[in-house]
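REVIEWER CHECKLIST
Item 1: Sequence provided? yes
Item 2: Single chain? yes
Item 3: Sequence as submitted:
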Amino acid sequence: MNEKGYSLVLTLLIITIFFMLGLTILSVSLYQAKFTQTRVEDVTSLHEATKAIEETIAEMKVKVENLELSTPLQLDTDLGNSETGFIKQLIDRYGVNIQDVTLDNNIDRTKLFTRVYLLSKPYGTKTVSRKIIITNTPSFLKYAVGSTEDVVLNGGMYIDGNIYAGKNFYVTNVANYIDNSQKYTVQTSFPTTSDKSVLFVNENRYSCEQKNGANACYNVANSRFERILPNYSNDVQFQTKGPSVQKEQSEFIDVDFDWTFKDKLLNAAGIETFSQAYENNINLTINELLNSLKGQFATFDHVPTVDETTDIGNEPILLDSDKISSFFIDHGELDLQNNWLIVNGDLYLGNSINIPVKIRGNILVLGNLMISGNVQLDSTIYALQRTFIYNANISGWNDKEVVLLSKGPLEIARINEFDNNFPFVDTPNLKGYFYTDSNAVLYAVGSYINIKGGLFARGNVNEAVPDGDTSGLVINSYRGPANKQNNAISLSPPPSLDEKEQARFVIQHDKSVFIDRGLGLPFVKKLDLIVDELTVK
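Item 4: Structure as written out by the authors:
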């Protein structure tokens, strides 16, 4: 009898256990089904929110690109706001939030065409957002590196940002350099880019892979580096990571350098764009315009002291002398605030000691520009002739940057030579955007160059880059340690050529230039829309 009772109890216990186990499995299955449904709904909601923002941006882009540039206040009328007009229509059509954050970025909307908006749309407990900038600045500022002619990337650099080649694009695993006036080529790695980088090429793209001296990419001849084109193939190679490749669909908005220089001269004299006085003078030559405006400037035949700049107040400064043609700013601080410095001659910035030269204000140079030493800049600088940046460390003053535009060729070399403190930190030693209306060449074999901003050469088809055989932009970079031994450069490869941290040229594009530089940026007669990265929070 007891055995039957025990058997009954055991049977009931087993049934109960299987019943509970079945309930648990059912519960887990239901939870997983619910979780999967929630995930699918989240992904669907994220896709819908992202699509709404992208469609809003697409419609805004069409709108601003077709607006006739009139006055900044007219732009506000054309766009409307969250309560009325075009922007209100977008909010209603796509269910997005459009927040005007122009004033939050200290932009004077009565003088500038720059507008900043934050587009967002919630989904679930999160929000998708994207910042856009409407501006009338030229297109070159959108790219980390580029040229409207050819772009040549030689060796192991790292690029975080987009690349633009208006014509052809070339990439190699060698870097060219000059030491004691002799020209050399060294084998290294191919370049590397970030995951988000895009390569825009309008014509053809080529690559050359040199292997232990075979299939050489360059030959030193005629006192320059000449490409051995039969060794280039019709493709594009990068090291571990490369950009996606596209053709640029947007119109490239170019800059008219002479017109821009005159525009800034008139602005420096207090004459506003689109005024009658502006229209009466803009067609003069640069020298004619300077002579007619001299009475509007505080003129010095030397670089003024702090006391002298304080005494003149808010007047723009003209450096002009019949006795000298070169001016040196090699010590102290020059704080022009929102005023301009006009240099009728060559300008040398920097020094060789640890205390940096500090300059705030915009500068127009009618001659050559040379920067060397330790310089902190919160400026936009225009140079009518050549620009040389040697042995320089250019950083921002008060976390701002420089936009440097040169009509003549741009050469950058010998920056932080033989610095081998790997991995290199993110702190840039050239903070700003560097542009030339001509050709540009950069050497980072013995140097270490870290740019936060951009580098662009419009290109001059009538001449080649210095020491090269093409027009446009040429960048040379080694990947690995570099030293000076027995009066010669000694190069050592890194443990792995895939190590982007040992690239001796690093560039990270920075969109803050559209906001920070304000009135100093080149003025063009067409609006464009700049889109920042999509964020989900």
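Item 5: Key structural point noted by reviewer: Residues 35-41 have pLDDT under 50 and may be disordered.
Item 6: Recommendation: ____
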